[in-house]
Amino acid sequence: MPSVPHTESYYAASANDKVERTQLNDNIETDVCIIGAGYTGLSSALHLLELGYSVTVLEAARVGWGASGRNGGQIVNSFSRDIDSIEHTVGKETGQLFGEMAFEGGRIIKELIAKHEIQCDLKDGGVFAAINKKQMGHLEHQKALWEKHGHLGHLELLDEQGIGSVVGSERYIGGLLDKSGGHIHPLNLALGEAQAVEAQGGKIYENSAVVKVEQGDNPTIHTAQGSVKAKFVIVAGNAYLNGLIPELQAKSMPCGTQVITTEPLNDELAASLLPQDYCVEDCNYLLDYFRLSGDKRLIYGGGVVYGARDPADIEAIIRPKMLETFPQLKDVKIEYTWTGNFLLTLSRLPQVGRIGDNIYYSQGCSGHGVTYTHLAGKILADVIHGQATRFDAFASLPHYPFPGGHILQVPFSAVGAWYYTMRDKLGI
Ligand SMILES: Cc1cc2nc3c(=O)[nH]c(=O)nc-3n(C[C@H](O)[C@H](O)[C@H](O)COP(=O)(O)OP(=O)(O)OC[C@H]3O[C@@H](n4cnc5c(N)ncnc54)[C@H](O)[C@@H]3O)c2cc1C
């Protein structure tokens, strides 16, 4: 089968490790077979190896080929819906548990980077930037909420002058700095995690798409050229699973978001945009996110394409957004553009659960997945090891199909997004 390369991106061009792994061409056995080598799969593998399980990861393309190797690289704490909204759904006691977990994914990432000496341009500090008073009010609420759940000593509200000292743009009226957030080269993080999996005896096969999962006491996972008999399976294909497990399709929708990267900026220009080298995301419903790369390019992302159709001209969509934030970049060349898919759920909370006795899944973190997927890996490893409390909390989150069914969910969601975008523009 022909090999599937990484999408052409700044990340692929600056990847630390370009060696291709072998394809599965055999029938083998393992304790846990993981489908997908993104952060969910790799974090699961690392945590399972630590617990003494043998692990085999099957990746349809390359390690980090999906969202994990294409994202904005922003380490954002909590979930795509915040702890209070979760508490509203699950009650105070379970809500408290989510509060404890909301800051763990970021810690796991930093621990993995330190432990395995992963070179991925880690920088500390992330900013939520407010465009209007209503958004600033949300940030004040978020600070109080996160501190109530123990996230102390990391957060700082920024007034107009404060945000001006960390983002060289006229767009924002204030913000919230999370010093424990930060940013990374996402593909190099995934590649470093994959090397750590292999260093601990885990096996990763690339260009090995799973075509069938045979359920049973010892499920068998089939690729075109081989098979894996396992005691447990973890499904970690997220937005790229393409209906492999039909039960997982109905309540989630793949969505695209696009990223552009400038040529390297001179030191003075780079420091004028982001003087502290923090990453930034705004507070709009369809948000913009940006940061500097290790070699001082501006990486700028935004937009959502419901249903994940690939847009024809990414630069035409994202460059105007970048220039609205930083008009001073009008003569700067864009060197890379790419798109990637994340998986949206109606509640924006992840879909976590078990099929039969031994097939586990986590998907659909709806945008903010860099930290959550690392937490998910630990929770999935723990449940396989017999500790189910935190898995059960996630599995208890209710999920509903998108309005409009399979045919109309894309236009319905676009109308919903238009409504919220208008509210953002009007500040209501
Ligand atoms: C452009 C973009 C920007 C983003 N920016 C941010 C950000 O700045 N901060 C943030 O928190 N989140 C961000 N996200 C979201 C975040 O990247 C994702 O939530 C996260 O990476 C999902 O990880 P995952 O491992 O679950 O899925 P993925 O990384 O998508 O990995 C799934 C893997 O499974 C493989 N696979 C699928 N089906 C099969 C099969 N049948 N057999 C074998 N393998 C299979 C795929 O090839 C893929 O490699 C962004 C997403 C995108 C697309």
From TrEMBL:
One of its GO terms (cellular component) is cytoplasm. It comes from the Bacteria. GO terms for molecular function: oxidoreductase activity. Coiled coil: none annotated. Residues 31-382 form the FAD dependent oxidoreductase domain. Its EC number is 1.4.3.-. Keywords: Oxidoreductase. It is an enzyme of class 1 (oxidoreductase). Pfam families: DAO. InterPro entries: FAD-dep_OxRdtase, FAD/NAD-bd_sf. This is Gamma-glutamylputrescine oxidase. It comes from Shewanella psychrophila.
